[in-house]
Amino acid sequence: MTISRRSFLCLSASVALPYFGVSIYASNVNKFNIVNFLDFSDSTLIVGRCYVESYYSKDSVESLINTMPVCDSIKTWNSSIKSYISNDFNNNNVIQLKGWILARTEVNLAALTWLLYKKHKL
Amino acid sequence: MKINDNLVSNNQTLKTTVCIVGAGAAGITLALELGRNDIDVILVESGGLEYEQGIQDLYSGDNIGHKSEAGINNPTTSCRLRYFGGTTNHWMGNCRVLDKIDFLDNKHVLGSGWPISYEELHKYYDRASQVCQINGKDYSPEAWTNDTTPKPFKINGDKLFNTVYQVSPPTRFGKVYRDELFNSKVIQVLLYSNATEINVSDNLSSVSGIKIKNLKKKKQYFVHAKHYIIAMGGIENARLLLSSSSQQVRGIGNKHDLVGRYYMEHPHIQSGIFLPNNKIIDGGFYRRFVSNNGHLIKGAMKPRAEQMISREMLNASLSLVPISVSEDDMSYAVSEAYASARYIRRALTRNEVPDNFWKHVFNVFSDVGSVAKGAYYKTEKINNAYKLFIHSEQSPNKNSRILLTNKVDQLGMPKVAIDWKLASIDIDTIRNMQELFALEMGQSNLGRVLLPDVDNDSWSDLIFGGCHHMGTTRMAIDPKFGVVDINSKVHGISNLWVAGSSVFPRSGSANPTLTIVALAIRLADHLKMRIKQ
Lengths: 122, 533
What we know:
The complex is a heterodimer of chains A (122) and B (533). With 122 residues, chain A is mainly alpha-helical. Chain A is built from 5 helices and 2 strands, in the order ααααββα. The longest helix of chain A has 17 residues, at 74-90. Chain A is globular and about 30 Å long. Chain B has helices spanning 25-35, 53-56, 75-78, 118-122, 125-131, 173-176, 178-183, 236-243, 305-310, 336-349, 357-366, 368-378, 424-443, 457-461, 513-532; strands spanning 2-3, 13-21, 41-44, 62-63, 94-95, 160-167, 187-190, 194-200, 207-214, 219-230, 268-276, 288-290, 296-303, 316-323, 385-392, 401-408, 414-419, 447-450, 496-498. The chains are: A mainly alpha (122), B alpha/beta (533).
């Protein structure tokens, strides 16, 4: 499996400006409502699947969710994710996936999306 | 003035105050500086005023070390030019000062550090800039950009910094300064004159004369001077010292077996792809462009000193080459097969058989799809990504060296063999630079970087030299560690100096010409003072 340029660009966009196929907004969002913030586009799923398959990841949905920021709005989620990614690059917390140097957070996010998709056939 | 070689008879001795061997950037700068101070100079040049194959062939030698794309079989002849003006006749013109860290003795770089300070050399860069026809010594992007020029990436991290290279017209020293040299009353230019041996006094402590051979006229003559400077380039300086062995078996200035050793290049590589987050992000700053004041400039990124120390890496410089890549799958662009195909193609265009030919052919046939994709997208003119172009510093390495062979040239001088050796720190520096760039682009939300599998053997084959030959008569206070002292005088010889990049004890990542000229001016100032005394 390869990560295409289009996939990559969409992943980048999904991190910065998530597209909410299921636009649910809740005031008291806890970590398990994170599903509402995820982008289930093909691009994210490809990257997530690529990571899970390449690294035989044993990460569970729950453990990946625990790596994500706690937010109650799309806006704060966006800025938190961007900040997490920036920090990852700053701290060399990156992973090389099919040659791409990606932040751990963005890879986790994609992997989480893929695992949820696979589990629930979203 | 120019001396007609017909007027010099066989076995004649010419006398002067300073004899400079080699009319390239260093030799011409020295002659101008000394001549302007009414010091008698004979400037000896092997070639004439134009390129001649017979003279150029005197350079030919073997390459027994790292085989590079730039000159797979014979970098001795492909890089240099042997006529008036020297290699500046095909110089690209990139100029930059060395960085402060380049002068330091870093623990992770064995044998590093200059015996003179950054501040000491920087005193001469202004004058060197004038000689190289560039505009001062400000290398900050702000000095060269405005709203109408390409701008550097706004980087948030602390890993890299933006800088510029100034681009000389480029100055063809042999043309720009020809009239002044030929019209000078104190400078005599001797063309078609090859220095073949340095003779020393009976007590071996000073040079008594230089033997010159004229290839065309089949005659020899001698120059006797008070002071001698060899300025023939990083390979020939060592060659002349080593081959002057009739009185000292190891050659001149080679008591500690250092002449020819510590041969350094600037390893270059194009590897890895930067994909901007959007099309607004333009990498134009990192290529050549016309600056806000009309000068030609090239932007680059360099690692911060703290990163170099913490990562135990050498200095490096990164620019970007626009490329067109497939929308669907970019993996071909960093595949081993595609790299091998490019490697073979470049060698064949030079009518040379690449090193490890069959290995690269096998790579190509094992993944023909990637090669085909690469060929297809190369024909498209849409630039939507950038290839990372890195040129880096090489660590001083005693085993990387210039040797004399048993073969001789038409003048009877031993030919050279270049044994260019790369150490693990040299390879790691390139990897570190790629990684720092990837991290910086991610942190600054500018894009992502695709890197090749760095463990494959083919990758190091792609490293080529920049035709920057340095370090073979390195500068050191202690004769046990260097050939020349802090004034570029050969240790143990009272009147022999070396000019050029062969004296660099550490190269940094900047192109060497500006520093060669700065050092030549410094040496000229030193000699002026010494001659007056």
